[in-house]
Amino acid sequence: MKNTKLGVVEAQFADIIWENEPLTTAELIKLCQKKLNWKRTTTYTVLKRLSERGIFQNDDGTVTSLISKDDFYSMQSEQFIDETFNGSLPAFFAAFTSKKKLSKKDISEIKKLIDSYEGE
């Protein structure tokens, strides 16, 4: 997939689609006008850009995603760790926890997640 990063406004736009798909371009234009204060042309421009990046498609006036929101953000997180920490999840985790204290609940959830992967 091409560039998987989204700017703040692109992410808001993407969320509108993910939360309402499938939807017609007319519905998308109305939602973007209401939530983002966009004109029709802006909606079409951003839709085209994100479609060219393989995230959404506009097929005969029906807009759908080519990748789910969860899959998209999972790929984005993986790309960040690859680029920033040479793919090392422990290095990312060490950097993250050096500035942020984990709560007992966070630690418990992380342990459960690790245990679930050890069982596979």
In short:
By secondary structure, the protein is mainly α.
| CATH class type of the largest domain | Mainly Alpha
Tell me the radius of gyration. 18 Å
Number of helices: 6
What is the typical, i.e. mean, pLDDT?
A: 91
Can you count the beta strands? 3
Class computed from helices, strands and strand pairing: mainly alpha
CATH architecture of the largest domain: Orthogonal Bundle
Strand adjacency order, main sheet: 1-3-2
Amino-to-carboxy terminus distance:
28 Å
Order of helices and strands, N to C? HEHHEEHHH
Regions with pLDDT < 50 over 5+ consecutive residues?
Answer: none
Major beta-sheet overview: 3 strands, antiparallel
Question: What percentage of residues falls in helices of 4 or more residues?
Answer: 55-70%
- The CATH topology name of the largest domain reads Arc Repressor Mutant, subunit A
CATH homolog superfamily of the largest domain: Winged helix-like DNA-binding domain superfamily/Winged helix DNA-binding domain
Structurally, the number of domains stands at 2
Tell me the fraction of residues in β-strands, as a range. 5-15%
Shape summary: elongated
Q: Can you describe this structure?
A:
This protein is mainly alpha-helical and 120 residues long. The chain has two domains: 8-67, Winged helix-like DNA-binding domain superfamily/Winged helix DNA-binding domain (Arc Repressor Mutant, subunit A); 70-118. Helix content is 68%, strand content 8%. It contains six helices and three strands. It has helices spanning 8-20, 25-36, 40-52, 69-85, 89-99, 104-118, and strands spanning 23-24, 56-59, 62-65. A three-stranded antiparallel beta sheet has the order 1-3-2. Helix 1 crosses helix 2 (25-36). The longest helix is centred in the middle third of the chain and has 17 residues, at 69-85. The protein is elongated. The two termini are 28 Å apart. The model has no long low-confidence stretch (mean pLDDT 91).
